[in-house]
Amino acid sequence: MTTLDPAIAARLKRNADGLVCAVAQARGTGEVLMVAWMNDEALALTLETEQATYFSRSRNTLWVKGETSGHTQQVREVRLDCDGDTILLVVDQQGAACHTGARTCFDEDRLR
Amino acid sequence: MTTLDPAIAARLKRNADGLVCAVAQARGTGEVLMVAWMNDEALALTLETEQATYFSRSRNTLWVKGETSGHTQQVREVRLDCDGDTILLVVDQQGAACHTGARTCFDEDRLR
Known about the structure:
By secondary structure, the first copy, chain A, is mainly beta. Chain A has one domain (6-93): Phosphoribosyl-AMP cyclohydrolase (Ubiquitin-like (UB roll)), CATH 3.10.20. Chain A has helices spanning 6-9, 40-49, and strands at 20-26, 32-38, 53-56, 61-64, 73-80, 86-93, 109-110. In chain A, the strands form 2 sheets. In chain A, strands 2-1-6-5 form a 4-stranded mixed β-sheet, with helices on one face. In chain A, strands 3-4 form a two-stranded antiparallel sheet. Chains A and B meet through strand 1, strand 2, strand 5, strand 6 and strand 7 of A and strand 1, strand 2, strand 5, strand 6 and strand 7 of B.
């Protein structure tokens, strides 16, 4: 198990499930690609491997983005928000970020 | 009470607290400004008034962004993600988005 730097771990404000929210943004275009969740190990792996790694709430397991699809996210920046409960990843996205094949998870359903 | 369009309400996948995640992005620059939460009424008010309105989990109440600070968010686009649990708002941000006075909530703590 990869362990998160204690200095970072101390700054996280996790939800009841031990998770923080993670927003992935495309480097260059600035597109918001997707929102997912991380536990401490997912964040540690993301920082160490520079490949975006999340925690799947439905499958209850770690998940390297693009592991099966090839649509990986090379991580360029990792930022923590002011209250410690949200991570912003700036990434180089390979192919589609969304499992539907769309470029981002926000492309298909505009409410306004 | 402002009611959310039932066609939209039917597409939302709320968490156990009845909330969806909301990411605010600056129009033009593409900056990710902040992440907050919305219940159905917050989303309905956001769509109706075009002023970003969130639900405060700590205060357990609706909250019009900038109501006291003047740092309002004029909403230009509202998008729902592929699995219905996250909203993306594209906004014109007045002043600082972060309560610390920073332009965004992600300016101060870079982990990588």
